[in-house]
């Protein structure tokens, strides 16, 4: 995760103590849908790299919005493979992207679980400017 995730956490306050978790939950729902759309586009439109790229651009934007840098990098790799009309490269990137999605889901799930266990009074704060 990059600085974007920290900025999302900074938006959390007493009025919306679960803001970051809610944003991440929406991201996982949206990104799963977008990955399904990409897989369907690949299946229904073999070698239509422009269509594949358009779907991946949506997912890349979603990844950027929460700071999922590894996923964003795989989206870029996929898009580069589309530009090269390299369907095997696209498939490799999509598989890596799905793995990164699963890893991120697991790690953020654990992270939010720990935050809930800690409770609001014990939640550590990140130093400003760090």
TrEMBL record:
Domain HPt stretches:
22-105
InterPro entries in alphabetical order: AHP1-5/YPD1, HPT_dom_sf, Sig_transdc_His_kin_Hpt_dom
Q: Name one GO molecular function term.
A: histidine phosphotransfer kinase activity
Please state where this protein is localized: Cytoplasm, Cytosol; Nucleus
- Keywords linked to the UniProt accession: Cytokinin signaling pathway, Two-component regulatory system
One of this protein's Pfam families, by short name?
Answer: Hpt
Q: Which GO terms describe its cellular component?
A: cytosol; nucleus
Record-level GO BP terms: cytokinin-activated signaling pathway; phosphorelay signal transduction system
Which purpose does this protein serve, as stated in its record?
Functions as a two-component phosphorelay mediator between cytokinin sensor histidine kinases and response regulators (B-type ARRs). Plays an important role in propagating cytokinin signal transduction.
Domain text from the record? Histidine-containing phosphotransfer domain (HPt) contains an active histidine that mediates the phosphotransfer.
Protein name per its UniProtKB record:
Histidine-containing phosphotransfer protein
Q: Which organism is it from?
A: Dichanthelium oligosanthes
Lineage in the entry? Eukaryota, Viridiplantae, Streptophyta, Embryophyta, Tracheophyta
């Amino acid at each position: 995760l990059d600085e974007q995730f920290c900025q999302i956490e900074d938006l959390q306050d007493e009025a919306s103590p679960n803001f970051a978790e809610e944003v991440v939950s929406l991201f996982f729902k949206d990104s799963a849908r977008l990955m399904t759309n990409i897989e369907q586009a690949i299946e229904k439109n073999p070698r239509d790299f422009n269509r594949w790229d358009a779907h991946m651009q949506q997912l890349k934007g979603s990844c950027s919005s929460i700071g999922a840098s590894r996923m964003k990098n795989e989206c870029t790799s996929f898009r580069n493979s589309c530009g090269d009309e390299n369907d095997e490269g696209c498939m490799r990137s999509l598989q890596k992207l799905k793995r990164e999605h699963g890893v991120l889901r697991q790690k953020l799930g654990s992270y939010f679980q720990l935050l809930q266990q800690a409770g609001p009074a014990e939640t550590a704060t990140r130093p400003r400017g760090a």
